């Protein structure tokens, strides 16, 4: 049976960087954020649910959902936040489950579920192993500020709104330190990746064949 690995971390800890590295080695990656965004595209289930609940004020002139506006509404009103969570989470969960089933049916030996809210959403119970991309808080703050152009205050506020990293460290099965260079992250991931069940399905081998 397929091994399910949950890849997580705090904001700006390096999850996307890590999953891009793993993808480069042919890992089967399921990107929870991408799935969630897809469900918010026009005509998709969450788009329609949000439009019905919040009204036309959350639709941008180009027809896309104004996710920033919805974020502001949820941030300002705990009841709206609860409605959003209760509406979105089951829909996203089902979509992720479908992707996992597809990977399993395709014979993938292992799958990496890239999911920022692994612990917060209860997904930990549905993976075999959880991997935490970990950075010391001051470095997290610096990387978040430089990537998003946030002020120190804004970056601090975003980090404070999340589950503390100390708590995530306690919950994770494997802690992957990303306080060094990207090269060092790659080396650490490589050691770990070598220990995982490989081959079989691999789009990798097929890709190589087409180059011969
Ligand atoms: P989010 O949860 O906000 O989507 P993330 O966990 O996916 O973030 P990344 O976007 O991968 O984090 O990394 C955050 C920032 O830090 C990016 O600008 C990235 O280029 C940078 N970064 C990641 N790892 C390193 C590293 N080892 N050295 C230097 N910069 C890094």
UniProtKB/TrEMBL annotation:
It is an enzyme of class 2 (transferase). The keyword rRNA-binding does not apply. InterPro entries: Depp_CoAkinase (IPR001977), P-loop_NTPase (IPR027417). It holds the Pfam family CoaE. GO terms for biological process: coenzyme A biosynthetic process. It catalyses: 3'-dephospho-CoA + ATP = ADP + CoA + H(+). GO terms for cellular component: cytoplasm. Pathway: Cofactor biosynthesis; coenzyme A biosynthesis; CoA from (R)-pantothenate: step 5/5. Its EC number is 2.7.1.24. Keywords: ATP-binding, Coenzyme A biosynthesis, Cytoplasm, Kinase, Nucleotide-binding, Transferase. GO terms for molecular function: ATP binding; dephospho-CoA kinase activity. It is found in: Cytoplasm. ATP binds at residues 12-17. Belongs to the CoaE family. Catalyzes the phosphorylation of the 3'-hydroxyl group of dephosphocoenzyme A to form coenzyme A. This is Dephospho-CoA kinase. It comes from Mitsuokella multacida DSM 20544.
């Amino acid at each position: 049976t397929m091994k399910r690995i949950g890849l997580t971390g705090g904001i700006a800890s390096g999850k996307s960087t890590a999953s891009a590295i793993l993808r480069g080695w042919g890992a089967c990656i399921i990107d929870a954020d991408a799935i969630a965004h897809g469900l918010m595209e026009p005509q998709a289930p969450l788009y329609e649910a949000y439009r019905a609940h919040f009204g036309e004020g959350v639709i941008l002139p180009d027809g896309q959902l104004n996710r920033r506006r919805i974020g502001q509404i949820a941030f300002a009103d705990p009841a709206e936040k609860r409605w959003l969570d209760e509406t979105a989470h089951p829909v996203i969960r089902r979509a992720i489950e479908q992707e996992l089933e597809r990977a399993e049916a395709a014979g993938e030996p292992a799958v990496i579920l890239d999911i920022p809210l692994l612990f917060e959403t209860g997904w930990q119970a549905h993976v075999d192993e959880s991997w935490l991309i970990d950075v010391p808080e001051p470095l997290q703050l610096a990387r978040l500020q430089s990537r998003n152009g946030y002020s120190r205050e804004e970056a601090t506020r975003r980090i404070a709104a999340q589950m503390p990293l100390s708590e995530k460290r306690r919950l994770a099965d494997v802690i992957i330190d990303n306080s060094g260079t990207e090269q060092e992250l790659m080396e650490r991931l490589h050691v770990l990746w070598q220990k995982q069940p490989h081959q079989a399905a691999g789009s990798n081998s097929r890709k190589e064949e087409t180059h011969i």
